[in-house]
């Protein structure tokens, strides 16, 4: 079928944060990212300061406002540190903007073209769930990151933590909104439904959620959407919506080719993960089959395992990366499997509920 909005890859994710300089140090020291570009007062930016952080094919942009009435500052008051922009590299930003807005997407920033000594940079932006934005970036005629950014020369290149790419980006929306946004991505960007998990698949004694996984036609861009389902107590989605004050990005899954080495390094650097009970690993081999990785090492690190018809995957989830119980990260290694760890949903949900109980939010 005709791809109405071709996408090359995730270009970057932009975080709105309270203190970009400190956030850059956190992602450098704890997650192994390298600061490759910067904008701020010294580069002529009078309103916003931003740090571009890279590792493998992953690019995060950490932005703070320099004035309290700026939209980024207002976002921080409402949401805390959060992902505000999903930037997608496209071959033609004008076409992507026209195709999506003509099919119902709401314009945030019309096609904009900026030029400097690095070339011509084109982009356009649309609204999606909550205060989130999707930015179409066309950089085929541009050499740097973006106009207004100065490249940073590092005295010592960071080794990194072995993170290679953005696997998927998960959003939480309010009850009853999931199907509306599934239809939105289908109609405006030509995405397709990859998987659907109902409240029977993702539930515990106390709470439940529903999820649908949307992806582009190439399968490179995967955007699962969660909504809460009825339960005896407050679900993790309800808790997120309460403290984020509306829909937004719940977690980002980052791929690695060696999850044991990556998680070992992240833990050594101070990254905190959800705890997996030892009982999870009892009879694991009979449940998931043969693995390349030693089960005792996976158990020691708390890494979860799941298998589908195409292979298996390994995954682990961090604690929220700020005091609000909102944004967290997933570290994932795929051995052929294309799923999202359905067999681990119950174990994951119970681990999150243990943390909710400690926060007094279950």
UniProtKB/TrEMBL annotation:
Its cofactor is Fe cation. PROSITE patterns: VOC. InterPro entries: 4OHPhenylPyrv_dOase, 4OHPhenylPyrv_dOase_C, 4OHPhenylPyrv_dOase_N, Glyas_Bleomycin-R_OHBP_Dase, Glyas_Fos-R_dOase_dom, VOC_core. Its EC number is 1.13.11.27. It is an enzyme of class 1 (oxidoreductase). Pfam families: Glyoxalase. It comes from the Bacteria. Keywords: Dioxygenase, Iron, Metal-binding, Oxidoreductase, Repeat. Residues 9-139, 165-319 form the VOC domain. One of its GO terms (molecular function) is 4-hydroxyphenylpyruvate dioxygenase activity. NCBIfam families: 4HPPD. Belongs to the 4HPPD family. This is 4-hydroxyphenylpyruvate dioxygenase. It comes from Trichocoleus desertorum GB2-A4. The gene is hppD.
């Amino acid at each position: 079928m005709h791809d109405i909005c071709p996408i090359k890859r995730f270009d970057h994710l932009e975080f709105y944060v309270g203190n970009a300089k400190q956030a850059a140090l956190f992602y450098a020291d704890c997650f192994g990212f390298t600061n490759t570009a910067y904008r701020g007062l010294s580069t002529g930016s009078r309103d916003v300061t931003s740090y571009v952080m890279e590792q493998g094919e992953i690019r995060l942009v950490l932005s703070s406002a320099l004035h309290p009435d700026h939209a980024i500052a207002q976002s921080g008051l409402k949401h805390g540190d959060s992902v505000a922009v999903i930037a997608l590299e496209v071959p033609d930003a004008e076409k992507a903007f026209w195709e999506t807005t003509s099919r119902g997407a709401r314009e945030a920033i019309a096609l904009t073209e900026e030029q400097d000594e690095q070339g011509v940079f084109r982009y356009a932006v649309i609204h999606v769930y909550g205060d989130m934005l999707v930015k179409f970036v066309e950089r085929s005629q541009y050499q740097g990151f973006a106009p207004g950014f100065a490249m940073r020369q590092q005295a010592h290149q960071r080794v990194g933590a072995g993170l290679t790419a953005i696997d998927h980006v998960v959003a939480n929306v309010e009850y009853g909104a999931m199907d509306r946004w599934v239809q939105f991505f289908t109609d405006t960007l030509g995405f397709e439904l990859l998987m659907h998990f109902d409240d029977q698949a993702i539930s515990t004694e106390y709470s439940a959620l529903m999820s649908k996984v949307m992806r582009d036609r190439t399968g490179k861009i995967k955007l699962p959407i969660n909504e809460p389902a009825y339960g005896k107590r407050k679900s993790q989605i309800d808790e997120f919506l309460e403290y984020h004050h509306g829909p937004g990005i719940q977690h980002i899954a980052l791929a690695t080719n060696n999850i044991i080495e990556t998680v070992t390094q992240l833990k050594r650097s101070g990254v905190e993960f959800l705890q997996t009970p030892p009982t999870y690993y009892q009879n694991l081999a009979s449940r998931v089959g043969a693995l390349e990785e030693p089960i005792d090492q996976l158990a020691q690190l708390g890494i979860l395992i799941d298998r589908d018809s195409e292979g298996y995957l390994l995954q682990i989830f961090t604690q929220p990366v700020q005091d609000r119980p909102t944004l967290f990260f997933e570290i994932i290694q795929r051995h052929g499997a294309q799923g999202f760890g359905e067999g681990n949903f119950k174990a994951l949900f119970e681990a999150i509920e243990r943390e909710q109980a400690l926060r007094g939010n279950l």
